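Give me a protein, keeping tokens residue-aligned:
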Amino acid sequence: MASKRYTQLSEKIDNTKKYSVAESAAVMKELTSAKFDETVEIAMNLNVDPRHADQMVRGAIVLPNGTGKTVRVAVFAKGTKADEAKAAGADIVGTDDLVAQIQEGNIDFDVVVAAPDCMGLVGKVGRILGPKGMMPNPKTGTVTPDVATAVNNVKGGQVAFRVDKKGNIHAGIGKASFDADKIAENITAFVAAINKQKPASAKGRYIKNAALSLTMSPAVKFDLAELADIK
């Protein structure tokens, strides 16, 4: 049974309507009612079958207005690359010591970046990082010789995305405290990144469904025709 608060918020949404990006962002401001700064969350269902390698949708986008979240970054790097990562603001930088820390269950970071020559070390903790969605990957810019840029991107509001086996993608793209126009800009940037990753083998309507919500709010449904035109 829905709570009284949730029911009241639902009354602010027209379930028969498909909202534009600007309208959906504005509604998020009206739905803000929690005692904390809720995350603005986008959910999409894509017309792809990720069981086929050529239909896997995966990547990353640095949002124009950031995510509003403080992100702790761990970097596997050595030598000058380690120095570059530290200078860029990485929270943890290491090699074998970082492997040991992860194996001991001490994971006080949100994202892992790795220099290519350290991927052998990362492989030792792949079974730990993988299920947590933390494995570095070239497609998300987290395996790169330019570790400084990777750290700056992650700290600056980079969002990684990956379609699940049912074609769904979820991501936090801002905070309820953001101005509506900032939320709209982040939505547009995120959708553009998804559209850019459209597989050549994907037929028919690519974005089947999409909605926007706050951490503790009902969702509004997007106008899919508008989303399809975002480049």
